[in-house]
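hey can u check if this looks right to u? its 422 residues, i copy pasted from the old doc so theres a chance i mangled smth
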Amino acid sequence: MNYIIVAQIIMSITLILMVIGKTPLYLTALIGTTISVLVAMLDIRELTLNKLLLSGLNPVILDMTGILMFIGTMQASGFMDDIIKLIIKIGRKIGGGEGIAAASAIGAGVIGMLTGFTQPSVTAVVTAKPSVLLGMNPNHSAAIHAHAGHLGNFGGFTHPTQVAIIGATNIGFGLINIFGIVIAVFLIICSAIRSKIYRKKYSISIDKDKLNQAIKELEEQKSKYNTFVVFLPFIALFAGFIFGYPIFLLGVFASVLTIILAKMNIFSAEKQMIDGVGKIAIPLVATITFLFMSATIKEIGLAKIIADVFEPILKIAPVQAMFVVAVVAGFITQSYGASSAIVLPFLQATMSSCPYTFALALVAAGGASIAQYFLTGGPIAALSTVIPIVEGSNLKDANRFQRPSQLIALGLLLVLSFIIKF
């Protein structure tokens, strides 16, 4: 009996169950992968569970820990609250209601980047009403606020699928985050511009009394620290990315810088740093699970089978093939997490015939993380959570407004897939 084939069948069933979403995602991945390994071990003697599990302890987890230490300190110091207030004020001055909504989405997205859970209603509860009072269509306001998820996922450091893609390709954090941030912010700005065009086209006027009320509410949101001071730790962090310093140490350095600038008690600050690491629990389990699954897919030969099946297209356009698969995965699963069941096996297969690992990681992450919101605005912590906050909005019309901007962002990503050659 060929136990390798049986192991491949078990792994395939596991992936299908993960895509369908009728069973617990992480338990399905862990149990299915473990059974697949145990069966494969009957044919491959050198294969062990320990070896494959240890592959899940990727160095990228260390980077994630440093980032979470930093976010814990930023939240405790009050810097994060001030950043959100500043972003919103800048947004109002630049673009009125659309500027407020876009800035709010960016603020919520920044939190999501660092925590692994993007909740646009965190900032929308403050900014949704003023954006509508300033003349925005309620559906447009809800749509733009909910774009926060694109930035939180694609630009972030802790979403399990994002971490698994980075770990599998071994590209490390840094450059992919910068690309993700630029594309996600571009998407948000596209929607803001489209909303402004809509208002101009239909000559929507603004009630001056409501305008003054909205401005007054926003002006009451006073910042505690100087603008440069609150952004300095982030500047240091991203400068470190660019120069290639270890992410874990950058997170620690940025944390210490925040402590000094905020004049925090050193003992209290250390506690907040450690508390920040507490947020790693879910991403840690998920990341180890996905990387364990990814290593198993490769070891039992399933990645090679996928590569053989798609060999013609992988020889001609491997990066573009990865892009299409990632978009389809995000679209049908409506979940960046669940899409990993499709994205990771294909990524492993594509890497065997394509040397451009960064390009593969970029389109895999970007395609799935953007497309997951296309069909319904996202099933969790996305548009559906913003709709109740924005009076007069509805899910169907708000989601319909989101789609052209998402297609533009995916188009930009596709263009980059032809340009990036590393």
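The chain has a mean pLDDT of 83.
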